[in-house]
Amino acid sequence: MTKNLKIKVCGMKSTQNREQVEALGVDMLGYIFYGPSKRFVGDSPDAGLFQSDKAKVGVFVNENAFEILGLAKNFDFEYIQLHGKENPKTCGILKSQGLNIIKAFAMDDDFKFSSTAAFEGIVDYFLFDTKTKEHGGSGKKFNWHLLENYKGNTPFFLSGGIGPDDAAEIKKLNHPMLAGVDLNSGFEDEPGLKNIEKLRKFIAELKK
């Protein structure tokens, strides 16, 4: 099953690095539009950063829907990933404009999967990330066994602290709704700069 997992690499900041990542055969590239993040694309991002033929994902935290729509149009995003307290109505507004929606949930041992139910049928994917004080890129894992409690019908991405040595463990996961992996801080030389060899090795192992 894991041979068909989508590979999403998030937190792209430089055109050259994006081109190198793209050449690895990844499926999706994520760009963070959240000022406090170390991987924020910046107020005037590199002009070539978004000139990719891979699926582009704009990542936002509690941003105004109309601001998101404007940026999605400017940069030709196919996907919008929402990492804050966005409600189903906001997701529906964005979805109605032709965008694919990924809704992130912060996971810890107290997480209730019932909180995902209101988004069923509205968003395209869930993304299960580790709960931290900051949003994303913590390098910390949550307990993946919690995923066994997810009985919903929306496919999901696994995120949160995935590193170069985790391919074998991910291949053991047999959840029917696991659609892909979200790779970020575990494959970086510095925030926003991905280590190409680590990514290449991981992807090859995952697809074996």
TrEMBL record:
CDD domains: PRAI (cd00405). Residues 8-203 form the N-(5'phosphoribosyl) anthranilate isomerase (PRAI) domain. Pathway: Amino-acid biosynthesis; L-tryptophan biosynthesis; L-tryptophan from chorismate: step 3/5. Coiled coil: none annotated. GO terms for molecular function: isomerase activity. Its EC number is 5.3.1.24. Pfam families: PRAI. Keywords: Amino-acid biosynthesis, Aromatic amino acid biosynthesis, Isomerase, Tryptophan biosynthesis. The keyword Ligase does not apply. It catalyses: N-(5-phospho-beta-D-ribosyl)anthranilate = 1-(2-carboxyphenylamino)-1-deoxy-D-ribulose 5-phosphate. This is N-(5'-phosphoribosyl)anthranilate isomerase. It comes from Draconibacterium orientale. The lineage of its organism: Bacteria, Pseudomonadati, Bacteroidota, Bacteroidia, Marinilabiliales.
